[in-house]
From TrEMBL:
One of its GO terms (biological process) is proteolysis. Residues 49-240 form the Peptidase M12A domain. It comes from Folsomia candida. One of its GO terms (molecular function) is metalloendopeptidase activity. This is Metalloendopeptidase.
């Protein structure tokens, strides 16, 4: 494997840890009246938003996992969709466990629940009955990555009111917040729309709200998709510099739209997952390195990348293959405008005048067809 090829892979940001995480059989119930506790395992020296201590992170930002033999096949497909949801938006990767010592066992042992961060050895991620909702699985996976609940942040009292009198007796500990020496928000503002935020009535003894947002109209308890802040927090913890972008043709003013497994088209901006891409920004803008461009619209088991089609002048979406034809460099022109060059061929992305993207043999920063505006993908 060439040096360049190695550099185009995701850059592992974690260091191998040697100390043993503390283990205590403490349960942190989560999903309210519907589910039992959703955080398993110890009370480590961690942040209530995200674990500060790198000991709890997964090396190479990769979680090895395996299912128990009896884990339902129907749930496995949703689990894969949850993997795709995270993989498209972040630098996190999942792999089927081979012989890794530290791994997640996906089982049905304890409601919808997960340990927080890498705990060492086998740790459960439980998806029992009614836990086969994509957003619920993503929520548990984010616990496993090292994040607690949003409303446990140090600054939460500035954003929500906790109505202690409405909490089921014995469940008050789920509504503690924690000192700043103990927690990190990983650079993000308090986020009502976090997939890690409780709903308003979780653990309510009387159906009345326990958590009331101070911002009128704020909705909490999102369980459909990661918020932009969730995405950034994960990337800030595991791989600073990784971010979501959209690529806008300066020639037509439209963005790339993925047609998975086929050519990439140019289309009107519609704020769809398949119009958003994730890059390692520092590598992407370094001509000696380059970055993969992976799509948020992941489907199937492989990480899907922008891929130069070597059989013709086009580009397409393909599973990650480690090939340098999946490695791209953004060369700055002016402002937010770049040319985008393939590391293997040296050809540049070009809007061919129709709605297709081609690879131009001769790169030219003055050719409007080869000018691409690169902007943050987080539009809300
Ligand atoms: Zn939870």
């Amino acid at each position: 494997m060439s040096t360049v090829l190695k550099l185009c892979f995701l850059i592992a940001i974690t260091t191998r840890v040697t100390a043993t995480p503390m283990r205590e059989p403490v349960q942190y119930p989560d999903e309210g009246a519907l589910f039992e506790g959703d955080i398993q395992g110890p009370l480590p020296t961690v942040s209530r938003a995200g674990i500060i201590n790198p000991i709890a992170r997964w090396p190479s930002a990769t979680i090895p996992y395996q299912f128990t033999l009896t884990f339902p096949f129907g749930y496995r497909s949703v689990f894969q969709s949850a993997i795709n949801h995270i993989v498209g938006r972040t630098c996190i990767r999942f792999k089927t466990r081979q012989a890794e010592v530290d791994f997640i066992e996906v089982n049905q042992d304890s409601g919808c629940s997960s340990g927080v961060g890498r705990m060492g050895g086998r740790q459960g991620l439980s998806l029992a009955n009614r836990c086969d909702h994509l957003g619920t699985i993503v929520h548990e996976m984010i616990h496993a990555l090292g994040f607690w609940h949003e409303q446990s942040r140090t600054d939460r009292d500035d954003y929500v009111t906790i109505n202690w009198g409405n909490i089921q007796p014995g469940k008050e500990h789920n509504f503690q917040s924690y000192d700043a020496s103990y927690v990190s928000p990983f650079g993000e503002e308090y986020d009502y729309s976090s997939i890690m935020h409780y709903g308003s009535t979780y653990f309510s003894k009387n159906g009345l709200d326990i958590i009331t947002p101070k911002q009128s109209g704020a909705i909490i308890g999102e369980r459909e998709t990661m918020s932009n802040s969730d995405i950034k927090k994960i990337n800030n913890m595991y791989c600073q510099g990784t971010q979501g972008v959209i690529l806008k043709s300066e020639f037509t003013g439209k963005e790339f739209l993925i047609n998975e497994g086929q050519d990439i088209a140019i289309w009107e901006w519609a704020n769809n997952d398949n119009q958003k891409w994730t890059v390692d920004w520092s590598a992407f803008t370094d001509q000696s390195l380059g970055s993969q461009l992976w799509t948020w619209g992941q489907t199937g088991g492989n990480v899907k990348m922008m891929d130069e089609d070597q059989s013709n002048a086009g580009v397409n979406i393909w599973g990650e293959n480690g090939g340098i034809n999946q490695c791209w460099v953004a060369i700055h022109i002016t402002g937010s405008t770049y040319t985008i060059k393939n590391k293997m061929s040296g050809r540049c992305l070009s809007n061919n005048g129709a709605n297709k993207v081609a690879c131009a043999t001769f790169c030219s920063s003055s050719d409007l067809r080869q000018q691409w505006g690169i902007y943050e993908a987080y539009s809300n």
